[in-house]
């Protein structure tokens, strides 16, 4: 409990509210995903009805469920990792390792954002639809969210790496 409290103090209030809102929306989308999956299964296997757009909607739901909480995971240090060495290090060394890890992450995700940009721009030029025949329009919006999320993750990780203790006094432990 104390670790969560110290992390909340490090996180700016606006960012905390924003990531909380994204988590809440993702939670609602999980419920929507489950309900819609049940509807698709009933329509397909009970009533022998199906539509490609219905399956695409499941993909869209799942996409947003995964992508919305990502910045909050980085900011809140909520990722899953195996940490066997940091207990042997002091807080300064843990903070240095956290900073280096954030810089490496920022570089890698920034490269992914830069690499996805041409595909996203091309998708907007074509107003790309779902690759499935009869699927939902707006595939270019999903690609935009990928590029935007990669950019937000990269900038967030870089800004956090500039701090002397990115995750507060407790570090990444």
Structural summary, described in words:
This protein is an all-alpha fold and 173 residues long. The protein is 72% helix and 0% strand. It has one domain. The protein has six helices and no strands. The two termini are 14 Å apart. The N terminus is likely disordered.
Looking at this protein, list some descriptive labels.
disordered N terminus; mainly alpha; single chain; 173 residues
Shape: elongated
Assign a percent range to the helix content: over 70%
Mean pLDDT: 82
Query: Strand share of the residues?
Result: under 5%
> If you compute it from the alpha carbons, what radius of gyration comes out, rounded to the nearest whole angstrom?
20 Å
The major sheet is characterized as: none
Question: Number of DSSP strands?
Answer: 0
């Amino acid at each position: 409990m104390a670790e969560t409290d110290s992390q909340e103090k490090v996180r700016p209030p606006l960012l905390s509210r924003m990531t909380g809102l994204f988590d809440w929306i993702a939670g609602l989308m999980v419920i929507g995903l489950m309900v819609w999956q049940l509807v698709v299964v009933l329509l397909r296997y009970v009533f022998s009805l199906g539509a490609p757009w219905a399956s695409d909607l499941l993909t869209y739901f799942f996409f947003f469920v995964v992508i919305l909480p990502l910045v909050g995971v980085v900011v809140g240090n909520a990722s899953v990792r195996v940490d066997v060495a940091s207990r042997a290090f002091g807080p300064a060394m843990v903070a240095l390792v956290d900073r280096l890890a954030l810089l490496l992450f920022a570089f890698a995700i920034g490269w992914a954002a830069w690499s996805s940009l041409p595909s996203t721009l091309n998708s907007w030029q074509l107003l790309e639809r779902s690759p499935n025949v009869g699927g939902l329009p707006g595939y270019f919006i999903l690609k935009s969210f990928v590029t935007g999320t990669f950019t937000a993750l990269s900038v967030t990780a870089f800004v956090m790496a500039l701090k002397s203790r990115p995750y507060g006094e407790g570090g990444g432990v």
